[in-house]
Write a structure and sequence with these properties.
Largest sheet: 7 strands, mixed
CATH topology of the largest domain: FAD/NAD(P)-binding domain
Shape: globular
Strand content: 25-35%
CATH superfamily of the largest domain: FAD/NAD(P)-binding domain
Structural class: alpha/beta
Helix content: 25-40%
Number of domains: 3
């Protein structure tokens, strides 16, 4: 069968690209070997947020007395029911993607897709043709030889989303978004959590001030955070406990916990999809592409976690739209990788876009920083959620927003404003003079801009 465009992989890059192509009048097929929606909808972003919401509800119930609410009896988390709800949410979203595909007359082909050469795709023995083929095969948890995953005691994020019994103790190796979110979830439910991070600070890609704030938040939750620490080996002893040999600030130690969660990053799914046979170039474990996601082979494209750039669902979606619009001759703007929003759904949440202070200092860029702590926010105080701050970084030269870094309740929902402001080149003056509704957490963005101008009113 002949299509205009075949896309391999139905994650946030693949299915969004498919729908945009269909909107532009192309005949489209989408190949998927597992559930529609890819890892994000089924084993990543969405089910994780469902778990975290359950933990937040549990925390709110435990703190009910602080709000003048009495709860009779014990409040206990039921991990089996929490996981069941999470899986139900994921299933609902996957069905939603399938509905969108049908609505847009996109053929969903189930099976493992691989290139058979330019214009040809094989799916479990059947062959299809297309003028254009987009690879969107995503990524999987990276496995390390010193930390062999068995799926029971040493697990990845996928198994961590489906545990039916709360472990008494869990060691999380890696403190990026995945590791931090799952560490917070299990700590909030009452497990003894230890976070081991190789870099000098937790959440090492975030602004240093954010990292320090989150280390304090985790310690407040009674989680142990070990930074500048290397995991040497992980093994399971005769009692079924994990022994983790580490070397850190105190020298060599051995930790023990029921479960070890490996959250040391991801690995692109590029094996076995026919890259070598088709002659598609790979560099440093990722498929090499240009600004419109064309590979070195005419008619073959790649987007998402398998190409250089941040491995984020919303980035894959943006790349998919850009790629398809270029194929269809719409002359789209290339994706701006300096304006990619990033969120971590711990409690407090973390949200950021643009440059960190450390990056600006490394580049020698003169800037002004404006800060607003949520302790000064009426809405945050009324809600009992005063932890965190808003920090905005503006260019000294012309006042344009260079970066935004937020810690606090619901800050992931607040991030759209600074992201749009950065994309449009908004200045501190423009943000400060934009009237923000009162009382809201969003006022913190305005207040931080005022602080950068030396006009702070509420500090």
């Amino acid at each position: 069968m002949k299509y205009d465009i075949i896309i391999i992989g139905s994650g946030p890059g693949g299915y969004v690209a498919a729908i945009r192509a269909a909107q532009l009048g192309r005949r489209v097929a989408l190949v998927e070997r597992a559930e529609a929606g890819g890892v994000c909808l089924n084993w990543g972003c969405i089910p994780t947020k469902a778990l975290l919401r359950s933990a937040q509800v549990y925390e709110t119930c435990r703190a009910a007395a602080q709000y003048g609410v009495e709860i009779a009896g014990d409040v206990r988390p039921d991990l089996e029911k929490i996981v069941a709800r999470s899986r139900s949410v994921a299933e609902t979203m996957s069905k939603g993607v399938q509905f969108l595909l049908r609505k847009n007359n996109i053929d969903l082909i189930h099976g493992f897709g691989r290139l058979k050469g330019p214009g040809r795709v094989e799916v479990d023995g059947a062959e299809y043709e297309a003028d254009h083929i987009i690879l969107a095969t995503g990524a999987r948890p990276r496995e390390m030889p010193f930390m062999p995953v068995d799926g029971e005691r040493v697990i990845t994020s996928k198994q961590a989303l489906a545990l039916t019994r709360l472990p008494a103790s869990i060691t999380v190796v890696g403190s990026g978004a995945i590791g931090s979110e799952l560490a917070w979830f299990y700590a909030a439910l009452g497990a003894k959590v230890t976070v081991v991070e190789y870099m000098p600070r937790m959440m090492p890609l975030e602004d240093e001030e954010v990292s320090k704030a989150m280390e304090r938040a985790f310690r407040k939750l009674r989680a142990t955070v070990l930074t500048s620490t290397t995991v040497k080996s992980v093994r399971v002893d005769a009692e079924g406990m994990c022994e983790i040999d580490i070397e850190g600030k105190k020298g060599a130690e051995t930790l023990r916990s029921e479960v070890v969660l490996s959250a040391v990053g991801i690995q692109a799914n590029i094996e076995g999809i026919g890259l070598e046979e088709a002659g598609v170039a790979v560099e440093h474990g990722k498929i090499a592409v240009d600004a419109f996601y064309r590979t070195n082979v005419a008619g073959i494209y790649a987007i998402g976690d398998i190409v250089p750039g941040p491995a984020l669902a919303h980035v894959a979606s943006a790349e998919g739209i850009c790629c398809v619009e270029a194929i269809c001759g719409l002359d789209p703007e290339p994706v701006d990788y300096t304006t990619i929003p990033s969120c971590v759904f711990t409690s407090p949440e973390v949200a950021s876009v643009g440059f960190t202070e450390q990056r600006l200092q490394e580049r020698g860029v003169a800037y002004k920083a404006g800060r607003f702590p949520f302790t000064a926010s009426g809405k945050a105080t009324a809600a009992g959620e005063r932890d965190g701050f808003v920090k905005l970084l503006f260019a000294e030269e012309d006042g344009r927003l260079l970066g935004a870094h937020l810690v606090g309740a619901h800050v992931t929902e607040m991030l759209a404003e600074p992201t749009l402001a950065r994309a449009l080149g908004a200045t501190a003056h423009r943000i400060a003079r934009t009237i923000h509704a009162h009382p809201t957490m969003h006022e913190g963005v305005m207040e931080a801009a005022e602080a950068a101008m030396g006009q702070a009113i509420h500090l």
